[in-house]
Structures are given as C-alpha cells and as structure tokens.
Amino acid sequence: MKRLWRWLIPLAAVPVLALLAYGFRVSPRDIPSPLVGRPAPAFTLATLGGAPLDLAAYRGKVVVVNFWASWCYPACYEEAPVLERNWRGYRDRGVVVMGVGIQDKREAAEKFVGDLGLTFPVAQDLKGTVSVDYGVYGVPETFFVDRQGRIRLKHVGAVTDEVFQTTVDRLLAEAPAQ
Amino acid sequence: MSADLGYGMTLVALALAVYGGIAAGVGARSGRLALVESAQHAAVGVFVLVTSCFALLTYAFLTFDFSIRYVATNTNLGTPFYYRITAVWGALEGSIILWSWMLALYTIILIVRHREGARELYPWALATMLGILAFFLLVMTVAAPPFQRQVPVPPDGRGLNPLLEDTGMITHPVALYLGFTGFTVPFAFAMAALITGRIGDTWLVLTRRWTIVAWYFLSLGLLIGGWWSYHVLGWGGYWAWDPVENAAFMPWLTGTAFLHSVMIQERRRMLRLWNISLVILTFGLTLFGTFLTRSGVIASVHAFTQGSIGILFLGFLALVLLTALGLVAWRWDAFRSEGELDSVVSRESAFLLNNVLLVAAAFTVFFGTVFPLLSEAVRGEKVSVGAPFFNQVNVPLFLSLVFLMGVGPLIAWRRASVDNLKRNFLWPIALGIVAAAVAFALGVRSFLASLTFATTVFVAATIAVDFIRATRARLRVGESLFPAMGGLLLRHNRRYGGFVVHLGILIIALGVMGSHAWSVQTETTLHRGETAELAGYRFRFDGLTAVEESNHFKVIGAFTVSNGRPLGVLRPAKKFYPQEQAPIAYVDYRLGLREDLYLVLGDFARDGSQATIKLQVNRLVSWIWIGGVVLTLGALLAILPERHKSA
Amino acid sequence: MSRLVVAWLATLMLLGATVHFATAQSSKAVSETTVHDVAAQLRCVVCQNLSVADSPSEMASQMRAIIRERLAAGESPADVQRYFVDRYGEWILLSPPRRGFNLLVWLLPLVAVVVGLAVTAALVWRWSHRPRAARAMPVVDPAMSERIRRELERES
User: Fold this and answer.
1) Which residue of A lies nearest to C69 if distances are taken between CA atoms?
2) Domain B520-623, what architecture?
3) What is the pTM of this model?
4) A3: which of B18, B115, B221, C120 is 20 to 30 A away, CA to CA?
5) How far apart are CA B532 and CA B526, in angstroms?
6) Exposure pattern of C92-124 as b/e (b: 16+ CB <10 Å)?
C-alpha cells in the first residue's frame, strides 16, 4: 500500500491541468453585470442635435441603451444598422432606442451618426460618468431596460436582430405595473 | 513560392525531429550507437532547416513580401528597416520559430559538448530534446504556420504593433526565450537520469553551467522587460504582476532555488529527489508560461493568441508533467535518502530555508495568477488578483530571502559554532541596526523602508566582511592589493560571482523599495503657459506640435522643467497609428540616480491651448537597472570556467 | 486598511509631496495622493491588469476624474470603492476582498510557507539525529595540520 502513495505525485498535476482546461470554456472578458435586475441609473445628456436626453422621461416604455464609439471597429459598425432597423420597426410600440457615445471627439461622433444614417436619439457621454454608472468596460454594450426602469439584460458585443427582438418582445409582453 | 518552400522545410524539419527523437530513444534502449548517431545527423538537419526558415522569413520581411500573411499583418511599407527585422518575432508565429530555432541551437550545443562525456545519459537527453523540438515544430506546422499565404496580395501591410517599435523589442524576447529554452537542457538530462536510473551527481554536474546560463538569460529578459515597460508603456511602472510576467517570474524563482539546492547535493549528496523535482517544475513552468501567453485563458497585456494553439500547449504540458512526475514516482525507491545533517545551524539549513521561501513565493505567484479562474470555476464569481495582492503577500517572503542572502554564504557548512557566528555576523548585524537608526534619524517613518534598508546594509556588510577577510589573508601571504582581489574573484569565481549577483539583488531591492515608498505623482490640466509643481520641480506647458512620421501621426507636448535651475524641455507625445484603435502614449522622462521625472501626455485641445498631463517623480528606479547590470556581471563571472577546483 | 498601506501613506505625507492641483474648482480640496491611492486599488477596465492610477488610457483618466469628484463631494475612499464595486462587481478590485472564498488566495500562501517550514524542520531533525558510525580521530602530523590551517584560512 505504501508503494502507491508515490503515484500521488503525478496525480497532483491533474487538478491543475483540469483547471487550466476549464479556462477554455470561459472568456476573461465576459464579466457579469451586477446591475441586472436593478433600476437603471438615471442620466441627463444632450443629443448631438442639442435636445435633452433624459432617461427618466421614458419611464413606461421599453428602453434600449446602447454604448458605442466611432473607433470601435468593426462591432459598432455592424450593430448600428441592426439598431436603426429595429428602432424603426418598434418605435410605434412603445420602445425607445438611444445611443450613448463614449470617448469620441464631436466630429467623429457626428460622422458616425451621419454615415450610418441613425435616426434614434444619440448623445455623447463626454466625461464618462454615465458609462461608469452603467459599469461599461468596453464597446459596444447594450442595456435593455423594462417599463419599470429596471435593467433586465446587458449584452456585450454587437447586438443582433435576434437578441434585440427576443428581448424587446419579452419586455413588451410584460404588463406595465401601475 | 517562398511560402511553399518555407512550409516544405517546416514539414521536413518536423519529420526529422520525430525520427531523431525515436532513433535516439531506441538507440539508447538497445545500445545501438549507429541509431544515436543518425539521430545526431537528424538534429543537425533540423537546425539547418529551421535556420533557413528563419532566414527566409526575415528576407520576406525585408522585401515587403505581403503575399505571406504573417508579413502583411505585422509590417507595412512605412515600417523602418530595423523594426522589420525584429518584427519577425513580434507576433505568435514568429515567436514559435524563434523558440524552435533556439531549441535546435541548444540541441546542437548539447551534442557537441556531451556526446563524449556522458555515455549513458546523453542519448536519452538527446531524445528528450528532439521530442520537445518536434512538438514546437508541430505547433509551427499545424497551429501557427508562419508561411501562410495572403490571397489576394494586399498593396500594403497592416503594420507592426507600435508598442513593439522599440529597442527593447530586439532584446527582451530573445533574452527571455534563451532563458526559457535554456532550461530545457537540464530537464532533458533530468529525464535521462530518471530513465536510466542514474540519479546521482552526474546529471547535475553536467547541467550546472547550463542552468546558470539559462538563469542569466531569464534574469536579463525580466530586467529588460521591466525597462521596456517603464519607458514605453506609459504607465510609469516596471512590473505589473501581469499573468504573463508572473509566468516568466515563476521559473526564475524555482530556477534560483535550484541553483542553490544544487550546492547542497554537490557537497552532501542530499536532496536528489528535490533537485530533480525542481528541474521538472522549472521546465513545466516555462511551458505554462508559453501556454498562458498563447491561450487567452487568463487576460493579459502580453497575450497574443488565437485558435487551437492553447489546446496544443495544454496537451503538451499535461504530457510532460505526467511523464516526468510518473518517472519520479517509478524511481522513488532509488531516492532513498542518505541525508545527514550535523546541526540545524548550518549552511545546509540556510539553503533549505532559501528553497522553501523561493518555492513558496513561486506557489504564491502561481496561485494568485490562476485564482480568478478557480473562483469562476467554483462559484461563478469573477475576481481580480493584481498588484496590491502580490506586493503584499510577497514582500515578507522576499525580504526574508534578502536576509538569508547575508546569512547563507558566511555561515559554516555542517555546524556553525558560536565563534563562527560571532566572527561573521557581529559587525553586519551591528551595522544593520545602525542603518535602521540612521534611516529613522533622516526622517524615514515607513517601517518597511527602514527594515529593507537595514537588511540590505546587513547583507552588504556580510559580503564585505568575507571579501576583506579573504583579501587580507592573501595580503598576508605576500600578494599586493589588486592582484589579491582580482585573484580572489577569478580563482573562486563561483563564490564571488554569486556575491556579485547578491550585490545586484541588494541594489534592485533598494530601488524597488524606493520606488514604492517614495514616488509621488499627480495629474493636472494646464493651459498654455501654466505651471504645475511636484516635489520641488516646476513644469510649464509650452504648447503642442504635430508631426507626420513614416507610419504614424504624432502630437508632441512641450514642457519646460526646472527646479530652481532650468532642466530642459520634456516632450511626451501621443502617437496615432492608422491600424490602432487608440493612440499610443509616448513617454518622456529624465532619468537620475535619485529620481526620475516621468511625463505622460493625456487629453489635449485641438488648438493646443490646453493639455492634461500626468506627472511622476519616481525615486530610486534607476537603481533597479544598475542592480540588474551588476547581477548580470556576477552571473557572467560565475559562468567562467574554473581555474583551480577549490575544494 | 492594511498596515503596509498606512505606513506608505504616512511616509508619503511626511516626505511632503508638493502637489499643485491646477484646475478643478472643488468644494473640498482633494489631495492627488488620495485620488491615486483609491485609483490604485481599482482595475482599469479597458486595460489588462493595470490599475486605474497607472493606466494611461482615456477611460482610466475619466475614472480618475470621477474618483476626484466623489472625494471632493465628501465621500470617503471606502464609499468610492463601494460605488465602483456596485457597478462592476468585485472584479474591479485589484485585490480580492478578504471574505469567504477569497480568503483562500490570502491564506494558502501562508499555509504553504508554514507547511514548507514544518516539513523542512522535520527533515532537518531527522537528518541531524541519524545515528552515525563512531569515527576514530585520525592522528595528524604537524606539516599536514599546517597545510590544513592554511587551506581553511583561504576557504573562509
């Protein structure tokens, strides 16, 4: 029996190797947000056109808050048409899409919006307070806020038609708590 | 065409390596020398082929051959000449070629040096080397082929990562890899020892110089990496406890432990199992390092990864660890200990303590590095383990090790008498206490800083005591001063080389302490003409200039510095590369013995009317580089072939 | 806060960093040192493994500004830290908080050292108390002992 104890030495390597193998299944950049399920932090910004953009004003509607930047290539450029398309499709159903640009010069932001023909309200978070408030650690990130103003989903990376529509449909189906 | 030629050569090299490994193994087993010799020829063939691949790739870089994908991704028409050469190893595929080339080179040197001297061990060591080489060639063929075609051929390449356009880029990877691959040879001999059952001193004596050389290059690589981080990356620090940095540091720690425990085995024939395990651990950690860098499993600044390569490396790491440790378990009985110690108070004990602390430090760094992964696996929570943790936990360990540096070399082997202790340590301890008092008198109130200072003075005093005493003995015999000192260094070069290395570590320790305890920084926004003050220096913002370079656009801020007397103008800049998403900070600094001035340009107004600047006054950082130079000189001294065997 | 941090803070303050903060009109003067210390505990979210204090990125710069603002508004460093943890999770702290599962990473190194020392001590004990064959003291002639003395002198 004593002879077998020595084989613990090579066996000791196995849990370490298993842990490293587990590492392949997770991405170190995939950080779960503690804000899901909590009220979406309020903010008041100004759109590129100058109009005020206040999150609180949209209480009662389903709000999709998208954080982007003009230097975020290619993801932000891929998802912008998706957002625009779905904005046009859902705007009459009580859904608002809004874009918050971070770390961009004004001209770059305006060029982005102009080139991609975005018609939903877009503002710039020049000081970064809103993006930190939302726990943003990269772009693009999209938050889906329900009618009670709670964040229900955070999507990291370019948003797709499927993600958008499934989530928004689900949130729209919930009865407004009044 | 050259892409196909390169790929073909890689395939042939792989085949030769596989053949050579098997031939050497079979030849060793059956005693057929002809097979071992053909394995040697295969090794030479591999070296020639890998060298040719390297040359071919370099040529492709120099001639802007964008038909090769690796060239197109890592260089463009604006890349300056010398960076085109260093870009060869600037990314994943090139790093594998560099590694393979070094392995092949070391294999040739092994053949030349050891084929006569170590009849039993040599064939198995050769087989192991060729086997490992075969793996890296496999990676080169399958997962990271450097000669992949780029179709259609683009008119211009993407360009080198701007952070790599630096002299550090030439030396840091080369030194680091020479260190990593250098540890393969001791490992190969350890495997040979286990397989043949000759686990005595032969394999140890053969690999001693290899170990010091590998350790030297690894130390060099780490130091250059720190220097590169300090003057390129723009964050004002030299070590971030980044996972890949840790991965290079861990084999250094265990390698240092091995260098010391080897001396116990040489003198007392003890710790054979421990030494073999240390070598296996060190080599395993070098593989772990390459795995971390290339798998993306743990987030890191250094990671340059894609695809299946991580799985290959993990698989190989598993194979190596299970085989090597399995061999240890198989040969367990042969390690019956002849250990014998005369007294707890002895050099043997000091070295054992040294090993415990070094391996504990390596374990700490390892566990801290993988803990985020463990936390996620066990409870699904992501945590970060960064610099504050590593600094806090490692400082007591390192400080104890520094203290041991003073004790170890002077305390007697076997049994240290009270007399011996008094003679060697009275003065140093006294001086250490005096140093602490002096620090207190000078206004130092940090306990840690005083302790570090006192410990380094203690160790320096022990080195001085030894050197003075030995020189005096020679003077008494009639030699004059300088020949006496020089003769000492050369004749006992291992011992005094070690002392010089310790001296280097002391200087580094003081530099680290100074930079942590006494550095100051601030961040502020200045309008043109406004001045900021920090630590007695005044910085006046003079304005911005824009410059167009061959492959980037640069905005330079001019800051006039004075501290009573004018000290010149510092020009930190922001470099905008078309292929990069964010601008790269170009730091400007003024180095000094006591303190460095360090400026990083932040945000700025387009018209140059204002700029945000991060100012740092870093204290004693230059001592780290000076200590590094001293350390490498000491290592070189220790590597010299010995003139006379002194007991 | 740990003793280390307190010691270093004390040192920094005593050695007197002359800091001139040029811009912000803040309601309460915030020392850059404090901002730096808070920022040094937070992970820069867009870099890998750098602290918010160290990182040259724009995001880190904005985060430092937020820290500065909050401290100026009267929040304590602990409050500011909690704010960030609320938004990003524990991940944003560069040093895992010493609670629960995280205690493992803090304690295991200590355990490793203790175990290592204990095993070494046990081995040293065993080796130094091994019964040894009695050795007869050899008779040494004076010339030999003179050579030995000289060798010993050179050795030490």
Assistant:
1) A129
2) Sandwich (2.60)
3) 0.89
4) C120
5) 8
6) bbbbbeeeeebeebbebbeebbeebeeeeeebb
Average of per-residue pLDDT across B443-456: 89
What's the complex ipTM? 0.87
A32 reaches C (C-beta below 8 A): yes
Q: Which string of DSSP letters, residue by residue, matches A6-66?
A: GGHHHHHHHHHHHHHHHGGGS-TT----TTTTSBPPP-EEEBTTS-EEEGGGGTTSEEEEE
**pLDDT tens, position by position, B51-71:** 999 999 999 998 888 888 888
Burial of A20 (0-12, 13-18, 19+ CB in 10 A): buried
Q: Which residues of C touch B342 (CB under 8 A)?
A: 128
Q: Which superfamily does C3-95 belong to? A: Cytochrome C biogenesis protein (1.10.8.640)
Cβ–Cβ of A23/B311 closer than 8 Å? Answer: no
* Tens-place pLDDT, residues B225-242: 999 889 888 788 899 999
Q: Closest Cα partner for C64 from B73, B474, B295, A128?
A: A128
DSSP annotation of C129 reads T
Q: How many Å apart are CA B463 and CA B446, to the nearest integer?
A: 26
How far apart (Å, rounded) are the C-alpha atoms in residues B108 and B196?
22
Nearest to B314 among A6, A21, A71 (CB): A21
Sheet holding B588-590, edge to edge: B520-527, B610-619, B595-604, B588-590
B626: which residues sit within 8 A by CB, 6+ positions away? B507, B511
pLDDT greater than 80 at residue B617: yes
Per the structure, the count of domains in chain A is: 1
First to last CA, chain B: 60
- Architecture of the domain defined by B1-150: Up-down Bundle (1.20)
The values of phi and psi at residue B135, to 5°, are -60, -45
Strands (E), C47-147: none
Which residues in chain C touch residue A35, judged by CB atoms under 8 angstroms apart? Answer: 87
User: At CB < 8 Å, which residues of chain A contact B?
Assistant: 6-7, 9-10, 12-14, 16-17, 19-24, 26-29, 31-32, 71-73, 105
Name which of A9, A27, A76 to mutate to probe chain B: the one with the most chain B Cβ atoms within 10 A of its Cβ: A9
Alpha-helical segments (H) within B269-330: 272-295, 309-330
Interface of B with A in 214-253 (CB under 8 A): none
